[in-house]
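Write out the 3D structure for:
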Amino acid sequence: MTPDLHPTIERFIEADERMDADALGELFTDDVVLISPITDAFRFEGRRSVSAVYASAFSLFPGIDVHTVTGSGDTWALFLRGTIGGRRFEECQLLRLDGQRIREVTMIGRPVPALLMVMSKIGGAMHERGLMSRKAAIASAGVAPMAALLGVIEKRLMPRLAPRRL
């Protein structure tokens, strides 16, 4: 069952699927906060910063598909899927509204190898947009070997370790 969508959520989904960070930015409060799926060390704060995070992420993906939406009132969850470097990923974006604008976004992603691939690439994309320092971009890129190793484990080892059916 699809809930009656809040008009802001409808516009968010349309902009997200078009990968239009400017249109998303128009939906955020001035003091919007984005809670990253990658780190608890900091949050992204403010409309321009959060829009830059989305623009950076959009530069990494060929496209995304919002496949499930649930929520009501001022709390909504959007589930989407896409690929990065040929690797499938899924993400949940928990959106909290303040009237007609989005005041908070919490992102959660899976599987771990794809999430680490995003982490290894997004620092550079955010640096290009002035959101992160060069050191942060280098630290982000430093995750690439771990992403590659976990990608191999996921592809080659995990299928052999599938659980038994009881």
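The first strand starts at residue 28 and ends at 35.
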